[in-house]
């Protein structure tokens, strides 16, 4: 069973589902598993650890996987893009930075250019710079973003995209989200948190267990964990994480935390190294409500497609008022 869209045709995949390139979580094993299950896996190039990236590209083997970069970090390490393009990936995904300086190189190498955007202005800029796919990311997503919600942002980007396939991201973890995205005009979905809580994801067991146990009510957006790890992003970006003892202690006291960064940063780094998630953040989105167990990635893809197909097939009769 599959759902055919412009995205599946462009990426030559069976299912219109993309793995979000989560830093250190979307590794070669997870990306390859997603691709071999008929969706499209993207390795999280993140902040640009060359040794890690080479290892995970090797781990993906012959699977058709893309690579995603935090664009302004990649701009400081231009060798990383060259290194990846030498391997002829089917697609490169850019997020959180200027597309223009890198678009031509990516497209000349024959890779599909996927650009994640959080505003309509960003979508128009990415389209003008040659994006082949636009990912409209709502603030429901885990990790960094801005403020717009997925449901109104996606159709607005679709209308502005002028024929470029649009992918919905943020708060999508099952077939209902996939069906809703398609009904909004998107050609597919980008999924992060649901794939974090899989058997193949590189995250720790403790982090995955917290995602399963969490409620979307218990997530929070802010810059606390960025301050604690000495990596504050430029405004208006902030990140969504699961609430924990650290966030509850410091929420609303960001200025004080910044003043005490020299004391708190080493403690936070130690907590991350020891998987102490009472202090270290688990990056996850509001869709945690929909995640009740840690499953194989392939099983999640199959379930999402089956549920979405059933919902879309039944929509014409389910919501039509009889005479």
Helix content: 40-55%
How many structural domains? 2
Low-confidence stretches: none
The number of helical segments is: 16
CATH topology title of the largest domain? TIM Barrel
Q: Bin the strand percentage.
A: 15-25%
> How far apart are the termini?
33 Å
Q: Give the number of DSSP strands.
A: 11
Spell out the key features of this protein.
single chain, 323 residues, alpha/beta, TIM Barrel, 16 helices
Report what the structure shows.
By secondary structure, the chain is α/β, with parallel strands linked by helices. It has 2 domains: 6-202 and 291-313, Aldolase class I (TIM Barrel); 205-273, no CATH class. The chain has helices at residues 6-11, 28-36, 50-59, 71-75, 78-85, 100-108, 120-128, 150-161, 175-183, 193-196, 205-213, 224-228, 245-250, 254-259, 261-273, 297-318, and strands at 17-19, 41-46, 65-70, 91-95, 112-117, 133-137, 143-145, 166-169, 188-191, 219-222, 238-242. Strands 1-9-8-6-5-4-3-2 form an 8-stranded parallel sheet. Strands 7-11-10 form a 3-stranded antiparallel sheet. Helix 7 runs parallel beside helix 8 and helix 9 (175-183) crosses helix 16 (297-318). The model has no long low-confidence stretch (mean pLDDT 94).
């Amino acid at each position: 069973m599959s759902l055919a869209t412009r995205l599946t045709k462009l990426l030559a995949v069976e299912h219109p589902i993309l793995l979000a390139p989560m830093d250190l979580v979307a590794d070669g094993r997870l990306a390859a598993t997603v691709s071999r299950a008929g969706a499209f896996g993207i390795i999280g190039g993140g902040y640009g650890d060359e040794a890690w990236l080479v290892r995970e590209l090797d781990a993906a083997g012959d699977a058709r996987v893309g690579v995603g970069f935090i664009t302004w970090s990649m701009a400081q390490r231009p060798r990383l893009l060259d290194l990846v393009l030498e391997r002829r990936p089917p697609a490169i995904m850019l997020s959180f930075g200027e597309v223009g300086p890198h678009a031509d190189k990516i497209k000349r190498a024959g890779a599909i250019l996927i650009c994640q955007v959080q505003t309509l202005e960003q979508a128009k800029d990415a389209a003008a710079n040659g994006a082949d796919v636009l990912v409209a990311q709502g603030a429901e997503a885990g990790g960094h973003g801005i403020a717009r919600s997925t449901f109104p942002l996606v159709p607005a980007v679709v209308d502005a995209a002028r024929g470029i396939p649009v992918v919905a991201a943020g708060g999508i973890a099952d077939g209902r989200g996939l069906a809703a995205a398609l009904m909004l005009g998107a050609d597919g979905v980008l999924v992060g948190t649901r794939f974090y809580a899989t058997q193949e994801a590189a995250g720790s067991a403790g982090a995955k267990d917290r995602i399963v146990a969490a409620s979307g009510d218990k997530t929070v957006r802010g810059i606390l964990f960025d301050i604690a790890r000495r990596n504050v992003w430029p405004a208006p970006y902030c990140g969504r994480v699961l609430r924990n003892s650290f966030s509850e202690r410091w929420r609303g006291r960001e200025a004080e935390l910044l003043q005490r960064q020299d004391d708190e940063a080493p403690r936070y780094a130690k907590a991350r190294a020891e998987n102490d998630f009472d202090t270290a953040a688990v990056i996850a989105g509001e869709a945690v409500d929909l995640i009740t167990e840690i499953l194989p990635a392939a099983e999640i893809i199959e379930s999402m497609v089956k549920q979405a197909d059933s919902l879309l097939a039944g929509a014409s009769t389910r919501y039509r008022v009889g005479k």
